[in-house]
Amino acid sequence: AKEAFRHARGSQERIPASYTLAQVLGSQQKHKQAIEVEVQELRALRVFPRNFHSIQGLTLLLQMKNRLRKISVADVLALPECKDERIIAAMNMLLLLSKHSTYDGDDILQLLAAVINCKLALKYGVHKYSISTFSQIGVLVSVMFGDAKEAYRLGLMSSGLMDRLGIHDSMTSVVVHKYVNPWYRPLTESLEPLLQTYYTGMKQGSVEMAFVSFNIYLIHCFMAGLSLGPLLSDAKAHFDTIEEYGMDSILTPLRALRQAVLNLAGGDAPNPLQLTGSAMQEQDFFSSPNNSFAKYHFYMWKMKVCYYYGDWKGAEENRLLTWKNRKAALAFCEVSTQMYYNALIPLAMASSSSGGTAAAAGHKRRARAAINALRKAVTKEHKAINLVHKLHLLDADFLALNKRRDPRSVQQAFDRAITMASRAGLRHDAALGNLRAGEYFRTKDLNWSCHYLTRSIELFRDWGAHGVVHHLQTKYAQVLSSHSESTLTMMSSTTSSGTSERRASVKSSNHLGRKRHSTLRVKRGEFDAPYTFLDANQESLPEMGGEIFYGKRSEK
């Protein structure tokens, strides 16, 4: 590739030679060298500035944001198709530059590549190499300016262009279903497109996007509460194929995911709090160099495992390490997890500490700030689809810290969160809500404590987390054995809310093939839907009412 690039004569030989050389360097994880080749070629094509800096990049992004705000989705879909070979080559190179600058962590280059590609598309027409640029601009607008509604609208532009051109673009699909749509659409809706992107990417040779898509697919399956057994089968079925390519930046997050799920399922790990077993060895991770993306996912999964097994100190240590590498985590699954556990872990630490200690007050203060940040995402930015039940659970857990609060009001708050999670088919979050309620009632009412702990164990078992089930049965053996008979009698006569028990049947999933994703079966009119969905042809979101923040009242 270097020889071909060195001896290339004229643009007809130089452009494909430089593109091939950049691809080869990128596949060898030499992203900086690949970026140098791409920038050199883009300057030769007269579409890239000679000098640039961060202020210039932010100015260009703000100008493009204001320009796109005046353009509707229909206007973008009506753009002509680009026929200029020089512009098409530039779009292709800009797309490659955007990918390599993302892996290299160069935010300014990534921003410039997306903005310039979008400018070319608006001026000369759209092409398959410019489809993803609108969704990329949307991600940048959401991250830089906090405008999530505009990001969703720009994502609709990219999705519409894919349908119009009849092209399944791997990068566009990954950007839309990894960064944009999950903030507003149920997670289960992203599973089919992500899995299709994996198969399409492998078929077309876009293996990097295919592997990224498969990794996000597995994370969304976990977050959507789908059974852990089939999830492990999915990961194992395709892990050997991914390992053959030797892409450590993707392999490390996948290994951490597999080992974390194995630990929760009661696998072969000698210590469930460490990611050491048949999927990966924790010491190998520490002894080898890893980028920020791999580090974030490793510590994220270890944080979750520590929390589910009740190791609050270990969970907090790994939470701080994920926070340290958060710049590499911009996807919904990463940002929402960080926001959630920023509150969940301090709440657990505060409840396990003495109520009057300075440490407990500090944990409570950090939890209040994290809950307010999550509430802002749910209310002000209207990101309610996959976060609202988490917010209610955190609200209930925070109320439980108030020793003077009436236990009945705390119980109602927990029941509200559990009901929301159950209605959405999120067994693991419903199990977590029952677990926190059971822990709260250990000092209030052992009968209710046994009731909630028993339901938590049943839900964890149904989810496939048999290791967590064994841990809870051991930890709460005395409570479960001494009060099980009276609790079972109470459960048969009434539910926690005082009404008859209504069980929603959740169809399990085998993940791969057929219509297999978790769906909730409820009768029409049985309850009021807690979510508001946005159709693809809508460009705005419905307004949501004001909420009471901790410490002050928000008037809207």
Give an overview in words.
With 556 residues, the chain is mainly alpha-helical. The chain has helices at 2-6, 10-27, 31-44, 54-69, 73-77, 85-104, 107-124, 133-145, 148-165, 170-180, 191-204, 207-223, 228-244, 248-264, 282-287, 292-308, 312-324, 332-352, 358-379, 388-399, 407-423, 427-440, 446-463, 466-475, 477-493; strands at 505-506, 520-521, 548-549, 552-553. The strands form two sheets. It has a two-stranded antiparallel ribbon with strand order 1-2. The model is unreliable at 487-556 (pLDDT under 50).
Question: What brief labels describe this structure?
Answer:
single chain, 556 residues, mainly alpha, 25 helices, elongated, disordered C terminus
Distance between the termini: 61 Å
Biggest sheet features: 2 strands, antiparallel
Count of beta strands: 4
Strand order of the largest sheet: 1-2
Helix/strand layout:
Blueprint: H1 2-6, H2 10-27, H3 31-44, H4 54-69, H5 73-77, H6 85-104, H7 107-124, H8 133-145, H9 148-165, H10 170-180, H11 191-204, H12 207-223, H13 228-244, H14 248-264, H15 282-287, H16 292-308, H17 312-324, H18 332-352, H19 358-379, H20 388-399, H21 407-423, H22 427-440, H23 446-463, H24 466-475, H25 477-493, E1 505-506, E2 520-521, E3 548-549, E4 552-553
Antiparallel strand pairs: 1-2, 3-4
